Each structure stands twice: as C-alpha cells, then as structure tokens.
Amino acid sequence: MRFSRVLIHQCRFSRVLIHQCRLSRFLLPTLLLFGLYVLALLTSELFVALSRRFEAPAQKVESMEEPFNTKELPFKYNLMEETYGRKWAKTPDEEYISARDCTAEYANKNKLQQDHPCVIRLIRRDYLRKPAPQHVPYRLDVPESADPSDGQAQAILRILQNKTNGFFVDCGGYDGEFLSNSLYMERSLNWTGLVIEADKLAFNQLINRNRKAYTSPVCLSTKPYPMEVVYNATIGTMSFISEQNKNVHHKKPDLTDNKDETLNKKDTADVYRMQCFPLYSLLIAVGRTKVDYFSLDVEGAEYKILKTIPWAKVDIKTLTVEWNHVPEGEEGITSLMESNKFIKFGLFSMRFSRDVVYVKDFLDDFRDYVDE
C-alpha cells in the first residue's frame, strides 16, 4: 500500500515520471497487475474478518457446553450426553449447577439425569459410606455360618467358577448378614461391592457389621432419575402394603410414589420419606460400572428398576432377581433381560427365595461376525 501511494504521488507531481509513463509501452500491463494485487489483499483481509466473526459463537458453545436442541432426542435413559453432547464431562460441574444449589429436592424436582454431576455429588456426600478397613473384624450374629444366603451365592459362584476379587451389588441387603447373598463372597473370596438398604433400622444394623463394601441407605429408583418415595416398614422385617392388598405381607417395606397423598403426612418411625437413586448413578458414585454379580430383591419393583439401567454403559455378568412379587411376572423380566443380551440361566425356589438367574450372553459379539 505504501508503494502505491508513493507511485501515485510521483505520478501527480513529477512531470518527468508522467512523461516516462506515457512513453512506456509497459504502463498498462504494470497498472493492471498492480490493481489485481491490491484487490487480492483486500479480499484476503475481508475473508479473515468474516471468518473470525462467524467462528466466535461456535467457540462459545464448545467451551461452555451449552445444550443444543433436545426436543427430538429419545430420553430413554435420560443421560447427560443425550442433552449436552459427548463432551459434557469436560465442562466443570459448576457450569451445570453450583454445589450450594445441589440438593436432593432440586435433583428430584428437576428429574436430573442419572449421571448428572449434582446427582453423583449428592450420593457421595450424603448417601454413601466407605467400606470398613480390612483389619477391622466383622461383627456378626452367627459368625460360624459361612454362607447365610438362600443358595444364591453358591449358584452364582458355580457360574463364575469361584471367582475371587469380584465386585457385587446387593440391593435389599437388609442387615448385611441375615440371608445376605454377598457376605460369603466378601468374607471367603475377597470380593467387595455395594450393599443397598433403605430400611432405617436394618441399615443401622448393617453398618455395624463392618462390611468390606460400600453401603448406602437409599432405595433404587424406578425412574431414570432421582425421586422420593414413602417407605413403609410397619412390621419389622415384614411390610404391610395397604394400598395394594390389605391381606398381603412381604418381608421388605413398601415403596410408594411421591405423588401419593401420604407424603403430606408427618414421618413416623415406620413410615417415612426415602430418597431413591437409579442404580447407574450409584455405580458411577463408587467408580464401578463392571459388576460380577447383581442381587436384586425389592419385593415388586424389580422390573421397573431393571428398565432404568443403561445396559450399553454397564457390564453386569450375572444377576439373581426375585420375581414372585413383580406385576410383570417372571416372563416380563425375562423378556426385558433377553432384549438386553442376557440369557435366562434358570429358576430356583428355596425356603425364602423365588429367584431367576440371568447370565450375560458373552457369545453375542461372535454372532455379529460375518465370514467374508
């Protein structure tokens, strides 16, 4: 640009240069080339300016992980990536909700995703106890009983070939000893895991056992988000389900959706509000999505709980599921599990149990193989 100004200045004020320019037969080609050069410079600067202007919003979305349009997304499991994209985990937790505003009431009301940072923070902060140290002795009522389960532990260990150092999830763990499906694995084969029990009295007994596993005083949600329910434990280890059948008694307390009018009543020693979380949320909170054995015994909600699990994101090898109180029946549970690549291994009926055993179909990957 400076060169062009000098040239113009010289052309205007120097008669000698003008005379030479007129006489030169190269004047027109030279001016033409110079004009093309100037035009190219201006076009390049304009392109850069426009690029910067239109790139700014894209950089903002990537750095802030702002939610895109989710109206057409299938909220089958209500996971963070379905709402915020695959890069959501790179965003600081505070971008979604501050620690001060993260409460159980907020999580329930807003139906936060199973892996929402607030949900995981809540579990770790208020609803999870770490395993007792290995050197701390157990405090059992019947320590000489190696396997207090009703047959589930031995059945699963036959399938897993007496696996050691495994990981279990025991939902409906009661006091951590009586009819425990996981205690033998923990004591004899060095397993660890997560024991879930919503009954307050039973959980107080559970934490005194010094189990070498995580323990949580919650119930498993029947929805793919946190929720609050009414917990009915009116007859000790039995429960009275007045909303369904006045003559039916079960060994585990009743769970009633929070829309029930009993939520407005004052909590009592036997009927009280209980916080529930999806199983996937609890697994993330303890840092384990690979489970060797999942024991599910919650007296009727098994099907709904299994339906909340994002099976593509977890690796559960074996399950025992109590089925005789499930409205969908054993057939409904089996259909659900088979659709998620599990095989029904068999049914067994013991003194206290009516369970169905499922094993992950590890041959499924081979069925996709095509010989070319």
Automatic annotation (TrEMBL):
Pfam families membership: Methyltransf_21 (PF05050)
Stretches that traverse the bilayer: 26-50
One cellular-component annotation, GO: endoplasmic reticulum membrane
Residues covered by the Methyltransferase FkbM domain: 170-332
Keyword annotations: Membrane, Transmembrane, Transmembrane helix
GO biological process, one term: endoplasmic reticulum to Golgi vesicle-mediated transport
SUPFAM superfamilies: S-adenosyl-L-methionine-dependent methyltransferases
Transmembrane helix is among the record's keywords: yes
UniProt entry tagged with the keyword Transport: no
InterPro entries linked: EGF_Rcpt_Signaling_Reg, FkbM_mtfrase, SAM-dependent_MTases_sf
Protein name (database record): Methyltransferase FkbM domain-containing protein
Species of provenance: Daphnia sinensis
